[in-house]
Amino acid sequence: MPKAVRYAEFGGIDVLRVDEVARPVPGDGQVLVRVKAAGINPSEAVIRTGVLAQMFPSTFPSGQGSDLAGVIEEVGAGVGGFSSGDEVIGFSNKRSSQAELVLVEAGDLTRKPENVPWEVAGGLYVVGVTAWGAVHSVQLEKGETVVVSGAAGGVGSLAVQLARRTGATVIGLSSESNREWLESHDVIPVAYGDGVADRIRAAAPGGVDAFIDTYGDGYVELALALGVAPERIDTITDFAAAAKYGVKTDGGAAAGPGAKVLAELAALIADGHLEVPIANVYPLTQVREAYTELERRHTRGKIVLRP
Ligand SMILES: NC(=O)c1ccc[n+]([C@@H]2O[C@H](COP(=O)([O-])OP(=O)(O)OC[C@H]3O[C@@H](n4cnc5c(N)ncnc54)[C@H](OP(=O)(O)O)[C@@H]3O)[C@@H](O)[C@H]2O)c1
């Protein structure tokens, strides 16, 4: 029987387990994908604790995961354009991608370019569409300056590269350990922590035009203090500050159809214009170790599970 990540109650990392489950059968418009790689994301850990149970209700046992890449194993009725053996990138909205076999709506898939590695493809969806949505949200123009917090994280590492492609100057807030990676992607690294506002002002003598916050914890207030207009500030995580100051919260949902954005991002990766740094790859059976690393919140790029 195929294996899948599951949990039977809300809780810490120790509620995660890998169960044997019934083989899923594709219905109308669905395909069955044999997963080669599935990314993990901080929001999954938050949902698992139950603190957002009102906003994101769960039924138990719950599966986990949105990101996936794999090979089509079986095609349901009414599916055109895909057949078994096709290599695909996609997503599940049913918290189910961290598994050996997963059912996916055919419209939530795009073809994987041959030269995009499995772990990159499998970690692309959540961070990719979120970074795409956030960068478009702040409407950058050539010659402007944007600051990105959490600049080397899953969303941030893509956001800085997509922002740079607009011709904007990009300042990335990070720890010392990510300075070199940011510089190698033509991003100006600035250390976060005490005195960050002064360091940003020194790095941007002409002022800051836009701010993308992927970390929370006061960066919306920092953006306002730097003189950035509320409509040029996007936070994907600090919803309380967004409500208080009227800044944007555009992420993946604002990016439009997921498969279309995935196809665009995959093409950029295939052509060498976009890098998804892979911090670590764990076998599915080590899902607890994978989230232990993720929840330290110092990942560069993505952590990915390989069933
Ligand atoms: N609204 C949406 O649609 C949406 C979608 C995806 C994610 N999210 C949310 O967005 C957030 C980021 O997700 P992610 O996947 O990018 O997370 P992640 O990969 O875990 O982010 C890790 C990054 O955070 C940085 N960081 C740690 N402490 C920091 C600090 N004090 N100041 C600035 N940066 C700091 C780390 O930098 P160093 O290693 O350099 O310390 C690391 O690069 C999460 O809260 C997630 O739930 C929202």
Automatic annotation (TrEMBL):
Molecular function as annotated in GO: oxidoreductase activity
Keyword annotations from UniProtKB, A to Z: NADP, Oxidoreductase
Superkingdom of source: Bacteria
Protein name: NADP-dependent oxidoreductase
Documented EC number(s): 1.-.-.-
Pfam families linked to this entry: ADH_N (PF08240), ADH_zinc_N_2 (PF13602)
SUPFAM superfamilies tied to this protein: GroES-like, NAD(P)-binding Rossmann-fold domains
Domain Enoyl reductase (ER): 11-305
The species this protein was found in: Dactylosporangium cerinum
